[in-house]
Amino acid sequence: MIKAILIFNNHGKPRLSKFYEHYSEDTEQQIIRETFHLVSKRDENVCNFLEGGMLIDGSDNKLIYRHYATLYFVFCVDSSESELGILDLIQVFVETLDKCFENVCELDLIFHVDKVHNILAEMVMGGMVLETNMNEIITQVDAQNKMEKSEAGIAGAPARAVSAVKNMNLPEMPKNINIGDISIKVPNLPSFK
Amino acid sequence: MALKIVKGSIDRMFDKNLQDLVRGIRNHKEDEAKYISTCIDEIKQELKQDNIAVKANAVCKLTYLQMLGYDVSWAAFNIVEVMSSSKFTYKRIGYLAASQCFHEGTDVIMLTTNQIRKDLSSPNQYDTGVALTGLSCFVTPDLARDLANDIMTLMSHTKPYIRKKAVLIMYKVFLKYPESLRPAFPRLKEKLEDPDPGVQSAAVNVICELARRNPKNYLSLAPLFFKLMTSSTNNWVLIKIIKLFGALTPLEPRLGKKLIEPLTNLIHSTSAMSLLYECVNTVIAVLISLSSGMPNHSASIQLCVQKLRILIEDSDQNLKYLGLLAMSKILKTHPKSVQSHKDLILQCLDDKDESIRLRALDLLYGMVSKKNLMEIVKKLMLHVDKAEGTTYRDELLTKIIDICSQSNYQYITNFEWYISILVELTRLEGTRHGHLIASQMLDVAIRVKAIRAFAVAQMAMLLDNAHLLTGNMQRNGICEVLYAAAWICGEFSEHLEDPNQTLEAMLRPKVATLPGHIQAVYVQNAAKLFATVLRKHEGATDSQAAQETSQLLVERLPLFVQSANLEVQERASCILQLVKYIQKLQQKDVEVAEEVSALFAGELNPVAPKAQKKVPVPEGLDLDAWINEPPSESESEDEKPKAVFAKEETKHSRPRHTEVDEKELARRREARKQEQANNPFYIKSSPSSQKVYQDAPGVEHIPVVQIDLSVPLKVPGMPMSDQYLKLEEERRQKEKAEKKKKEKKKKREKHGKGKKHDSGPESEEDITPAHHVDIVTEEMPENALPSDDDDKDPNDPHKALDIDLDNLLSGTNCRPLADTEKLPVRTHRSEPLKSPGEDGDVESVPQEPKKRSSKEKKEKKKDKDKDRKKSKEEKKKKKKHKHDAEDEPAELPAEEPVKSEETNEVATPPTSTSAEASDLDFWLSSTPVAPTAKEVAAPAPAPAPAPETSLAAAPDSEADEPKDAEPEEVKCSKHKKKKQKKEKEKEEKKEKKKKRHHHHHHHSDGGEDSVQNGTMEEEEPLPPMSNYCLLAENSYIKMVYDIQGNLQDGSQVVVSVIFENKSDSFLKSMEFNVLDSLNSKLQRPEGAGPHDGLVVPFQLPPGVSNEARFIFSVQSIVMPQKLKGTLTFIVKSEDSSTHEKLDFKLHFTCTSYLITTPCYSDAYAKLLESGDLKSSSLRLEGVNMPFHHLLARICFHHHFSVVERIDSCASMYSRSIQGHHVCLLVKTADQTVSIDAKCDEPSLLGNVLDEIKQTFSQC
To answer: Which pLDDT does position B921 carry in this prediction?
Structure first.
């Protein structure tokens, strides 16, 4: 079981948090902070597993994380998950984000956290891995987005236009904080079918 | 209308959307909180509007704020509103918000039930999907109960997208509503074989989660998972299954044996590290479960260790970490294999990655030996010095102590060294483990007598330097050590060089800053020291020194009397008064030393931590009654005013000064013995030599400890443990030399030291402890009860899921779903009385999706048919459960408002599951049984379990629909093939003391007389049987084979050949070829010529065997046949490779064309009556075996099934792959067996009978 999925940046600012068990908002923030502290002090070239996320209960829990440019992707899992499998799942997740957002960068996650949630929902459900095939995930996400667009129809157009105008005025919209570098090599990890 | 919408959305344009909110927050870095609170106010306004779009936008923003840590539960109702929007866009926003912030305590959740149900049955798959996803996050027991049935329906949805989500969410439903597990399980199991890989994967996922918590309930699924494992190519699924097997194998060692081979193959073949790693892990689990340590598995261990070494050596830190993690699992059972990689592990200790260092530390635990302990600990001490973080340093500290103290200090040869290590550890600042060090010091000092003098010296030094420890109260963790130091100095004060000085140190004012419990020990032990000092000075003429000491106490103790700590205060005032009294006596020149030391006489034995708990209350003991009448005279009240506070029972004076009246002593001893004999609580010491004599009055009872003087007892100043390393080396050298000398003289040492002398290289045993170590074992009450400390958390949600599913599945003692176990289906609650029967149900569930699959309907019909049939046949008991299910609504309409066809459908246990479940033993018994593990070898149950079990589950359905039974048959024969795999002839002859098989017979009621397959419950178990016979063998390879008919294709048989590599070389490029005859042909891949061989799809490492299957097509099956063939292969040894070949003859017997097929007595009778069959008969003389064995053999070797058995007469049936019926009537009397047979093909019959005769002539 996956207990929680957290994404935060190099400064510990949460970009996405998904807890599959209920915690109060305060505890959640505490968990995020603690996890950030644990993860951020680790060197780049050490292993991606970490024992002892103390706040999430259950002694056999592990933190499995990956660091891409400005973002940390952290999965808190119990012993029923395969460590390398989860690492690979994170890779699939990031690659999927990359496809869905076209060269994903931190800003995409900042402004479209709802979309990230929707993508995640196609991969992991209630703490269990639902789908590991990227194409399948993208197909389902696209189909749902299409539905959304068709529902908005003509009525949605003005809103989109305004949104586009607003975005045009964005001085601080650098497109170069790329998560990029997703081709970080994981030796011999299988791509799941 | 359209205008209104457009207008609405134009209004909306100027609302903040999520992006604006985020942007705003980013622009207000300084006053973020303030900005957000204004935003929340805006959101509250928006939520008040009617426009759902505005609301959804607001909820979307709230979801974001929730992530930032703002409580948004106040908007729960609005979230529900957005969830119920008809538009997918908004619905999704609503469900997302709900999944982020709803939980069991959210009260509006109960409003969502209907909405969710509606969404679940929405025609739009994404509405359903979104609802399922949301529900998975916030499902509550109520929701689970109300929606379980709807979700179960979705498990059979036409869209795989929905199916997989429905399957997955079932796990959450089970957790919240455990009652749903049994009804839903059959369908869940069905999904394991879903055509869609995603659904299959989801089902595997769910079952793995379930099985992880309660593995024993899922053992029966092992064959199915095994099949999946060998067929699946999805690594994710494979990993899950392999992990699951890891959890199952401790429960069933036979399973492990079966797994080893395919897992080994996977390890060899896979390129995926994750898969390889999990395989290795499971192999390790298997090896642990097979702790019998079978020699043929050492190869597997080696393989694992090798692979792990590769992982550990990898530059990827992740693999290194996992490698070490898995290695530590091997360590527990096969420490030897790991020890050979010590170099590598020590290397990992220097890794820059802390996680890796910690893992390596774990492994060190098993690496140590007497030889290298000091070295390793020295290395760790270096790490302790260098360690940057306290967590890691503390970890190191505990590891050092763990390593040293493991298995009763097994590896410590020099306790002085250990004490000095402990003392060195006390220098660690800010450690949390002072307590741990203290308990080690106490333990060693108490249990290793030889070390006491040294320990006392060291502890005295610690007390002297106590300011070092207490200098900073922040790090009070370490001051716990003083507790131990003070106690040791006090208790063993006779070893003290200068008790006066220590006493002085213990009474320094600074001590008052220590924690109370430590001060208390200080005070108490100061008194002990005082006694020692008095005794020391008694003999001497000058009483000055003794009086000075008394004075010191009288001066210093008042400090403690003022202590706020009650314990300290009490002890101090008591002792103060005592000392004052003594002072008076001293002034009168009265000798008091003896009396004072009597206060602290007696030896303290270590008692096992649980000893007290384990003392059983003897029968007839009344704990409230007086054990002895209250003592009339108290022996020593006047002279021991302090007894109340004495930690140990004061018993008698110190043995060294036995001037005390001998008579008095003897009297007391007698009285005490008496008392002890009567006292049920007194822990009697066993005659073990290691026990300390509690009532030993004389010196002679204290075991005299030989101290090897080659080690100087006194190390000046603070000890450096390093010194011991050198000393130890020198000592060993010396010892070695000595031993050599002694060996020449053939002289033995007196003290049993080094009984074993090896002149060869220094081995473990050679290293004798530096001193004769007498480790006092911990005491336990004699008749201690074995404890099973159940630490299980009563709140564990998984506990509720510990539901026996085998009952549901297995045919033998099938407990069908009780009525209370049906999933609730929604009904109109307003309707108090329903019209009974199914129609009423349908009416009462108007919103039930009408698209119930046609399959279900059919099944329903089947049920009805069954009922009708049953009543005809009057099988009351059997009928019962199904009948109940059907009739229930009529009987209890008011009480149980929740019945529908759905539940009826569920209530019918699927025949396939039942067959497989009871097949488990059968399937498992196939593994090669090691000659050593007798108890494991379960007898092969009567063959063809399928008919018997399916009979139990649904006796009539099969009679009605023989087609249903057929696929099952195939499955079964597959299992059987596996089963027979590698059962060697040897085993066949093996002893017959086997466990009885309970499962093959459910003896049914009187009316039902078809006893299955010739075995009855009370009869003795069958010896294991195998159909594999030798094909060919040479020095490299052995082949055994079995032939099975293929039911699906009347012209095919499958030949399973097990290749076993007998050599030490690698066998590869194996090619299997057969010279076809006109009648029988080997099926070759398309494009291959008629003379080409088939490549065997694997290679064989030394000692490994594997199975390959070849399909042959046959035209006529009435005659047996032999085919010549050749196997060619390459033998590859280290430096050469040679081509080899082996000729063989494949013997197709007529039996191999027969397939076990169940037949029921009425059908059988009809068949015989039809008159189409030709008859023949056979007599066997001198068959000396029980009738049921005979039947079992026929069933097993010749693929028959028993139709009916009455006493010593049985009718049997089988069918050929081409549909010939073969009927046998077997009778036995006085070692003579007569078989009357009928078949529609006389030559086939003749040949089968000949083969049966052959079988029995062999045994």
So the answer is: 64
Domains with residue ranges and CATH for chain A: 2-150 (3.30.450.60)
DSSP letter at B747 equals -
Task: Tell me whether A55 touches chain B (CB under 8 Å).
Answer: no
Length of chain A, please? 193
B234·A113 Cβ contact <8 A: no
B340-354, B473-487, B674-688: range with lowest mean pLDDT? B674-688
User: pLDDT digits over B419-456, tens only?
Assistant: 888 888 887 777 778 888 888 888 888 888 888 888 88
Lowest mean pLDDT among B230-234, B287-291, B806-810: B806-810
Decide: B1039 and B1142 in contact? Cβ < 8 Å. yes
Burial B172-183 (b: 16+ CB within 10 A, else e): bbbbbbbbbbbb
Separation between Cα atoms, residue B420 and residue B436, nearest integer Å: 15
Q: Residues B81-131: pLDDT tens digits?
A: 999 998 999 999 999 999 998 988 888 888 899 999 999 998 899 999 999
Half-sphere exposure of B530 (CA within 13 A, CB side): 30
Interchain proximity B168–A125, CB inside 8 Å:
yes
Q: What is the ipTM of this complex?
A: 0.89
Contact across the interface for B272 and A189, Cβ inside 8 Å:
yes
Interface of B with A in 155-174 (CB under 8 A): 161, 164-165, 168-169, 171-172
HSE of B1129, CA atoms in CB hemisphere, 13 A? 28
What CA–CA distance (Å, rounded) separates B231 from B923? 17
pLDDT tens digit sequence for B880-925: 444 444 444 444 444 444 344 443 333 333 444 444 445 566 666 6
Q: Please, is B949 exposed, middle or buried when counting C-beta atoms within 10 Å of its C-beta (0-12, 13-18, 19+)?
A: buried
CA separation for the pair B803, B546 (Å, rounded): 74
DSSP 8-state assignment for residue B835: P
Provide the 8-state DSSP code for B562.
T
| Helical residues (DSSP H) of B540-687, grouped into ranges | 544-561, 566-587, 593-598, 611-614, 662-678
Chain A positions in Cβ-Cβ contact with residue B88 (cut-off 8 Å): 144, 147-148, 151
The answer, for A70 touching chain B at a CB cutoff of 8 Å, is no
Report residue B1221 as tokens.
Answer: 């019926």
Structure tokens at B1254: 């052959």
Residues β-bridged to residue B1235: B1178, B1226
